[in-house]
Amino acid sequence: MTQPPEKQQQPQQQQQQAASNAPEIDRLVESRTRELSALSSHLQSLAEKEKSQLARTLHDELGGLLTAAKMDLSWLQSRVDTPAYQERLAQLGSVLDEAMGLKRRVVEELRPSLLDHFGLATALRAYVDSVCGKANMRTDIRLPDDGGAPVPKDVAITLFRIVQEGVNNIIRHSGAQHVTLELATSGGEYVVTLQDDGRGFHLNSERDGWPHGIMGMQHRVRALGGRFSLASAPGHGTTLRVAIPINH
Description:
Layout: H1 5-77, H2 83-110, H3 113-118, H4 120-134, E1 138-142, H5 153-174, E2 178-186, E3 189-196, H6 210-223, E4 227-232, E5 238-245
Parallel strand pairs: 1-2
Antiparallel strand pairs: 2-3, 3-5, 4-5
Helix pairs in contact: 1-2, 4-5, 5-6
């Protein structure tokens, strides 16, 4: 049965309507994408500020309380002769030492003190050496002298967090025995390369936490006008490369 002319015209009209609406939809999508990107950048910046503030509070206030407790404990130990009491006071001292160690680790996770006081290269070397050493992985670390021009704080924390995320994923997933980290300035950019000799993976695979971690790293880099690349294949390890303009 032949459809009425008005029925035949409906699909064509719908296509024309969709075509005419496409530019407006594209503009709307682009606008919403910019808004979400700006919001994500703001939330990341806010999170780093809150981490920094919490780290200072823990370092100053909790650190002060623990130090005072250690001083009081030392005073008591110098005035108690009973062996049983001395033993309990020694145990209390061990607990306080553990608490102070935990406080230092939490503070360093929240905001690496080396990053603020000695610069990006020193903070990266200390972090990678420590974490990879505990995982029994060899490291090859190529970093410039921190005596040069300081890396801007927003770039420094971005590069540090990316290396932190990358190294954690290497330890959890790659089975690597060797990690190479390089930080350099080239072509008006800060360039970080992190490479491992692990099992590698298909980039389009769903992999325990990697997709979200990668998206987070990509966004951090793009927010500073930089470039992010990840190369990997089964049996060929993984190479992560980030480049951020010096004058971003």
